[in-house]
Amino acid sequence: MTHPCLILVPGLMCDASSWAPMLSYLDGHASYTVVDHGQADSFEKMAYQILATAPPQFHLAGHSMGGRVALQVVRLAPERVQGLALLGTGHRPKEAGEAGEKEVQARQTLLDVARQQGIRAMALNWVQNMVAPSRLKDAAFIEDIVQMFERKSEAIFKCQIHALLTRPDATQVLQQVRVPTLVMAGEFDGWAPPSQHQAMADLIPAHPLIDVITGSGHMMMMEAPEAVAECFVRWLKA
After folding, report:
1. Contact 10, 19 (CB under 8 A)
2. Which of 62, 128, 174, 217 could form a disulfide with 132 if both were Cys (CB 3.0 to 4.6 A apart)?
3. Which residues contact 26 (CB under 8 A, 6 or more apart)?
4. Residues 60-82, buried b or exposed e (16+ Cβ, 10 A)?
5. From first to last of its 238 residues, what are the pLDDT tens digits of the chain?
6. For residues 208 and 206, what is the distance between their CA atoms, to the nearest angstrom?
7. What do you get for the CA distance between the two ends of the chain, in Å?
8. Shortest CA distance to 49 belongs to which of 39, 62, 64, 59?
9. How many domains, the chain?
10. CATH number for the domain harbouring residue 106
């Protein structure tokens, strides 16, 4: 029996470490690979990079910024995507007016910290809102996330922030999805809350699986790897 080929797309400043805790649970259910965005500064470039090395058909899962990249892959080559999983992400473009300016300022603040104080200082700031409150006292866990960020440069951070701020509206992409889809949020994710994922699921005509990972924040694959993997197995079998 041939297992599905699963391409995993990491989020902002993340790498294979963000997916690693859950991968052993997928053994026997999928063959998987984690992509790297390199110096790409737009979702279109990131998507073309994925398509250039991907097999003819594949399952695709994206976390956070990676979910938006996954939607761009679907936009460019829907016939190649056999299944779609969207975790801790969104579909809307940068808002107009004051709301959009607030996002620009928030992201610029983190970029300024990275430039002036280093990636580590930025990561320690960022992570405070990205995991469930109960995990903030887990020093080893927080250090794993911070070290993952430290493996990326300020230049890469700047490229990825540019990609996020120039992101396209993916509403129509969601409305055209016809493959088995998983939409997943962390219970305590303030950045991409469960309500945002319900709004995405409501746009998808293919009756997506919807899961909220109890007790988890934004970094759900690291916070609750077994629970996330169980959902993935259900999705892969669909």
Report:
1. yes
2. 217
3. 6, 32, 229, 232, 233, 236
4. bbbbbbbbbbbbbbbbbbeebbe
5. 678 999 999 999 999 999 999 999 999 999 999 999 999 999 999 999 999 999 999 999 999 999 999 999 999 999 999 999 999 999 999 999 999 999 999 999 999 999 999 999 999 999 999 999 999 999 999 999 999 999 999 999 999 999 999 999 999 999 999 999 999 999 999 889 999 999 999 999 989 999 999 999 999 999 999 999 999 999 999 8
6. 6
7. 16
8. 39
9. 1
10. 3.40.50.1820
Q: Which residues contact 202 (CB under 8 A, 6 or more apart)?
A: none
Report the distance separating Cα 32 and Cα 3, nearest Å.
Answer: 10
- Say what the pTM is: 0.96
pLDDT digits (tens, 9 = 90+) for 177-215: 999 999 999 999 988 999 999 999 999 998 999 999 999
Close Cβ partners of 151 (under 8 Å, ≥ 6 residues apart): 15
Residue-range definition of the domain harbouring residue 156: 1-238
